[in-house]
């Protein structure tokens, strides 16, 4: 599992060409996007896509996002490109927005969990874009970690989670958004929000108007988007979200105990404390790294101070709620 350090803004073309050759050859490459690190394979190669599911231990009902360079590249994979798709991509691509549309037959069913729709995104990270350009093929890439585990925002996180299952890891340092993309479904009669993420809902709905919120799918039913499994983004130990006034009482119990809070100091009984910023964008950028740190320190329990119940924090609340679901 080679790890190659690359400049996050100007990656070495020879390194990118070698990584792209691995993608075209049916191998897996872990690479940075602005959201989290992805585990990439040639999206139109079913055998390569199957390697993603095997490496992650990912169930087949959980679809993958297909990464492309441009709206034009996305249009080659979908059956239609409605005006709203054009408006959204004009405003938010490249960036942390994924769009779900009806798929063309060339997209393997394994990519889409057998559904007639496909999720597409144009990432903004220079390394991801260079890899897409050099490969010349769309790249299917979920987060580069074991299924249900904490998403990776650094190459070290990828190596710790996947071990030798990534043929190559491109290390461009920490990601700048830190949580996955927002996913909107345009394949039905009414636009729907499938996953909260790196693009704020207020910004999205300023373009789309109010989005529908589909009911959660049955446990083993195919998902229209990744990120819809009940337990997700979870550390090895128990995670619990607690209000600020309840932290001291919640500390009592088995340890080691980790705490993520807004306070500078931790109450007695906390073994490892990480203080987080009050800005939601900065908090989102650092959240997974904080969870990885406490997980690596062997915390049997991780307490997280509840974040504000405000729109700007909605994606973070979603991630924490799924992280807290018991296995």
Fold and architecture overview:
The chain has a ten-stranded mixed beta sheet with strand order 1-8-2-3-7-4-6-5-9-10, with helices on both faces. Strands 11-14-12-13 form a four-stranded parallel beta sheet. It has helices spanning 13-24, 46-56, 71-75, 83-92, 126-135, 155-162, 201-208, 247-251, 280-296, 314-323, and strands spanning 3-5, 29-32, 37-42, 65-67, 97-102, 117-121, 139-140, 168-171, 182-185, 192-195, 238-242, 257-261, 272-275, 301-305. The mean pLDDT is 94. The chain has two domains: 3-208, DHBP synthase (Alpha-Beta Complex); 238-323, Threonylcarbamoyl-AMP synthase, C-terminal domain (Rossmann fold), CATH 3.40.50.11030. The chain is 29% helix and 18% strand. With 327 residues, the chain is of the alpha/beta class. The longest helix has 17 residues, at 280-296.
CATH fold descriptor of the largest domain: DHBP synthase
End-to-end CA span: 29 Å
β-sheet strand percentage: 15-25%
| Average pLDDT score | 94
Summed up, the domain count is: 2
User: Helical residue percent?
Assistant: 25-40%
GO molecular function: ATP binding; double-stranded RNA binding; L-threonylcarbamoyladenylate synthase; tRNA binding
InterPro entries: DHBP_synth_RibB-like_a/b_dom (IPR017945), Sua5-like_dom (IPR006070), Sua5/YwlC_C (IPR038385), Sua5_C (IPR005145), T(6)A37_SUA5 (IPR010923), TC-AMP_synthase_SUA5 (IPR050156)
Organism: Enhygromyxa salina
Function: Required for the formation of a threonylcarbamoyl group on adenosine at position 37 (t(6)A37) in tRNAs that read codons beginning with adenine.
């Amino acid at each position: 599992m080679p790890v190659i350090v690359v400049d996050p803004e100007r990656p070495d073309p020879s390194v990118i060409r070698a990584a792209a050759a691995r993608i075209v050859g049916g191998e897996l490459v872990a690479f940075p996007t602005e959201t989290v690190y992805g585990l990439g394979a040639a999206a139109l190669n079913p055998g390569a896509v199957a390697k993603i599911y095997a490496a992650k231990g990912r169930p087949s009902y959980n679809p993958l996002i297909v990464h492309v360079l441009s709206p034009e590249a996305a249009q080659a994979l979908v059956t239609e490109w409605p005006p709203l798709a054009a408006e959204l991509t004009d405003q938010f691509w490249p960036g942390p927005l994924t769009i779900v549309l009806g798929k063309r037959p060339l997209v393997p069913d394994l990519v889409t969990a057998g559904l007639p729709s496909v999720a597409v995104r144009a990432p903004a990270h220079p390394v991801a874009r260079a890899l897409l350009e050099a490969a010349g093929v769309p790249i299917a890439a979920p987060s580069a970690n074991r299924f249900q585990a904490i998403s990776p925002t650094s190459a070290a996180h990828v190596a710790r989670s996947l071990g030798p299952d990534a043929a190559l890891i491109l290390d461009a340092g920490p990601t700048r958004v830190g949580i996955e993309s927002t996913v909107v479904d345009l394949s039905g009669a009414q636009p729907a929000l499938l996953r909260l993420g790196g693009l704020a809902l207020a910004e999205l709905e300023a373009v789309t108007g109010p989005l529908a919120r589909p009911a959660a799918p049955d446990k083993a039913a195919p998902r229209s988007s990744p990120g819809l499994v009940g337990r997700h983004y979870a550390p090895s130990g128990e995670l619990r979200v607690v209000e600020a006034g309840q932290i001291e009482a919640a500390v009592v119990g088995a340890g080691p105990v980790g705490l993520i809070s807004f306070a500078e100091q931790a109450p007695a009984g906390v073994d490892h404390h990480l203080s987080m910023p009050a800005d939601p964008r900065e908090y989102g950028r650092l959240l997974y790294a904080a969870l990885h740190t406490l997980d690596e320190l062997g915390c049997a329990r991780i307490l997280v101070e509840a974040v504000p119940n405000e729109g700007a924090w909605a994606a973070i609340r979603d991630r924490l709620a799924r992280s807290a679901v018991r296995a």
